[in-house]
Write a structure and sequence with these properties.
Distance between the termini: 58 Å
Strand content: 15-25%
Largest sheet: 7 strands, mixed
Order of helices and strands: HHEHEHEEHEEEHHHEHEHEEEH
Number of helices: 11
Oligomer: single chain
């Protein structure tokens, strides 16, 4: 069977395993570590022959194998790896923008990406304007002559709004505007933005790709070869590089990414439905629930739902919310998500909105559902909810 005709899990298992062109008897490609690459002749040093390695910063077969696997997952023409999800967002933005340009960026964007735009891009004379993530093709009214890029995050990793990606991609393409999306929630598994017309799909591979909360990794997947070349050239100019050991661990995590995400999807949905019936909860923000405002968009564009969702509690003071979070024994308290372990955070202190005010009846709490037994997580939540009484 052709790999392109094979199922997604089959492709995850086999992608990137033949990049090295040797060691066919090894299931996983071995790690290649190198800074210096030796040449047999002096005249070859500057020849830059196609496919020839010249310095370790440009990567070895370890990084190439991971890039090939992510490209196959995303249906991408090329992939750039970066040392973290945030660095993937910032590198991509800098690669497509220049002084005098106008950037439209979704108001539900990841907080550190927002800080970068406000503190670095504006200092470089780039106009940054935030927009309501639910605008869809109404975003047309915000376009200017100098609008060069639209940056999306769908769903937002705190408030879970979903944007109309095909509509935004269509209006951007008509104006020659570059579109980029933080696709960490969909991870290329449940959402393939490039197939919907988005130019760059960006992910914190730290999360679902690695799956074990022990590696930092970012990826930028490009829709066509010219876009891939643009991103690769900028990454080279800025000295971007990732560790071959981190690339190996990320690729190893990807082998089980599909089964992990499918399990976490089912567990999260079961827990979300259970929370939806609790009197302490005003609203469950999970796109796969029919009552979610953007459920129709999710159903159209996504093939499933990640294990990350949020809830809005009934009005309660911060100390009560902290008591609830502290009472959970199976949920770790910490940033990031997508690993094998369940996590929880109180979100209110990090919500920043300027285009569309955040309005909620009570505190916002986010859960990342791991691989624990679903019934155990529900029992833990039931016990902790008594702290809100």
């Amino acid at each position: 069977m052709s790999k392109k005709k094979a199922g997604e899990n089959t492709r995850l298992v086999h992608s990137g395993r033949k990049v090295m062109g040797k060691a066919d008897d090894l299931v996983n490609p071995p790690v290649e570590r190198a800074s210096t690459i030796l040449f047999s002749k002096a005249e070859d040093l500057y020849a830059r022959k196609s496919g020839q390695r010249y310095y370790g910063r440009a990567g070895t077969a370890s990084q190439d194998a991971l890039k090939a696997a992510i490209a196959d997952l995303e249906n991408a023409a090329g992939v750039v790896l970066t040392p973290s999800g945030l660095s993937a967002c910032t590198l991509a933005l800098q690669a497509v923008l220049k002084p005098g340009d106008h950037l439209l960026i979704t108001d539900n964007v990841y907080g550190p990406t927002r800080h970068f735009c406000d503190e670095v891009l504006t200092r470089n004379r780039i106009e940054v304007e935030y927009f309501d993530p639910r605008l869809g093709d109404a975003l047309q009214k915000l376009l200017r002559e100098n609008t060069r890029a639209i940056f999306l995050e769908s769903p937002g990793s705190l408030s879970m709004e979903i944007s109309d990606l095909p509509a935004i991609a269509k209006l951007a393409k008509a104006r020659g505007i570059t579109t980029l999306i933080d696709n960490t929630w969909g991870a290329g598994w449940f959402l393939k933005p490039l197939d919907l017309g988005i130019d760059y799909s960006i992910e914190a591979a730290t999360k679902y790709h690695t799956g074990h909360s022990d590696v930092l990794m970012g990826a930028i997947a490009a829709r066509d070869k010219a876009m891939a070349a643009q991103m690769q050239h900028y990454a080279y100019l800025t000295g971007n590089a990732v560790s071959p050991d981190d690339a190996y661990l990320t690729l190893r995590g990807m082998r089980t990414m599909g089964v992990r995400m499918d399990h976490q999807q089912q567990s999260a949905l079961t827990i979300a439905k259970w929370l939806n019936e609790r009197e302490e909860v005003v609203q469950v923000l999970h796109p796969a629930l029919p009552e979610h405002p953007d459920h129709a968009l999710w159903k159209r564009d996504f093939t499933g739902a990640a294990g990350l969702f949020s809830i809005i509690l009934k009005p309660a003071p911060p100390e009560k919310v902290h008591a609830f979070v502290n009472s959970l024994s199976l949920f770790g308290i910490g940033f990031s998500w997508g690993g094998f372990e369940s996590l929880v955070i109180h979100c209110d202190p990090q919500i920043r909105r300027t285009a569309h005010p955040w309005q909620a009846e009570g505190p916002l709490v986010r859960f990342s559902i791991g691989l624990e037994d679903t019934n155990d997580l529900i029992a833990d939540l039931e016990n902790a909810l008594t702290a809100l009484a």
